[in-house]
Amino acid sequence: MQYRRIWTVVGQISLSITDKENLTINMWLNDRHIDAAQTILRNTYGIAGLESPTLQYTRTFTVHHLNPFVQILNHSGNHWMTVSTVICQPATVKIYDSMHLLLSEDLEEIIADLLHTNSKDIQVNYMNVQIQKGGSDCDPLAIAFAAAICNGQKPELITFNQETLRSELLKVFESKTLTTFPSKSEQRKATFDTQKIPIYCSCRQPEKGRSMVCCDECGEWYHRECSRISNNWDNSLSVFSSLMRELSDFTHSLLIMQV
């Protein structure tokens, strides 16, 4: 049986000697690194979000109806980005990504999970943050963006010293304290792109290519799978009516009647 040699412990997260080595030799960081950094930020600032990134895989993040949040998310298995609703209008989210990637369909669903908004769409603002050099520093930059937001800074208006981020992060994990990383002010356009994610159904999720039907009473579109409507039903031969909406957030009891 092989045991991991422990380097440091942050809350309930144990970082191993291998985790330390990966941090110092410019390897990609893992879920434990991200979880530990977010735990330190959560303990320091008490801001909503900053939950374990493993909750992304089970779709069990806390829903943030009212409280502004910060959360680091994984993009396509090999890239980290920071999302936040701090200083945002309702149903709006900001994306801080050192590669300036657009959201994947899976991440659009995660964003919808986090907001679970009553609005008809989610406004996505892609912030014009520092672009990483090389292919392995998205992780410390995502942590730096999150720390800056928690500290009241605007990551789109600062540039971090990428060459020292890992050594600074090493100190963070050993000291269990994190405010922000050394940076300098920059003048940039705030966003490099924007997007609207249309939201439907009682699940408050995007369409994502799933079969849908429209309620003839309220005009809302619903996923057939959420409403338990067989694909054999023809939209032109059915009336889809909403009967009850007051029992829980956006959850309806539905009646299907054939014309």
Helix content: 25-40%
Kindly report the average pLDDT value: 88
- Provide a count of the helices: 7
CA-based shape: globular
How many E-type strands?
14
Domain count: 2
Strand order in the largest sheet:
3-4-5-6-7-10
What's the quaternary structure here?
single chain
Structural class: alpha+beta
CATH superfamily of the largest domain: Adenoviral Proteinase, Chain A
From the N-terminal CA to the C-terminal CA, the straight-line distance is 66 Å
* CATH architecture name of the largest domain: 3-Layer(aba) Sandwich
- Radius of gyration equals 21 Å
Per DSSP, what share of the residues sits in E-state strands of 2 or more residues? 25-35%
List the helices and strands and how they pair.
Elements lengths: L5 E5 L2 E4 H8 L6 H15 L2 E2 L5 H4 L10 E6 L5 E5 L7 E5 L8 H11 L5 E7 L10 H13 L7 E3 L1 H14 L7 E3 L5 E8 L13 E3 L6 E3 H4 L10 E7 L8 E6 L1
Parallel strand pairs: 3-4, 6-7
Antiparallel strand pairs: 1-2, 4-5, 5-6, 7-10, 8-9, 11-12, 13-14
Structure characterization notes:
- By secondary structure, this protein is an alpha+beta fold.
- It has two domains: about 5-200, Adenoviral Proteinase, Chain (3-Layer(aba) Sandwich); about 210-259, no CATH class.
- About 25% of the residues lie in helices and about 25% in strands.
- It contains seven helices and 14 strands.
- The chain has helices spanning about 15-25, 30-45, 55-60, 105-115, 140-150, 160-175, 225; strands at about 5-10, 15, 50, 70-75, 80-85, 90-95, 120-125, 160, 185, 190-200, 210-215, 220-225, 240-245, 255-259.
- It has a six-stranded mixed sheet with strand order 3-4-5-6-7-10, sandwiched between helices. Strands 1-2 form a two-stranded antiparallel sheet. Strands 8-9 form a two-stranded antiparallel ribbon.
- Strand 4 and strand 5 (about 80-85) form a beta hairpin.
- Helix 2 (about 30-45) runs parallel beside helix 5.
- It is globular, with a radius of gyration of 21 Å.
- About 35% of the residues are buried.
- Residues about 235-259 have low confidence and may be disordered.
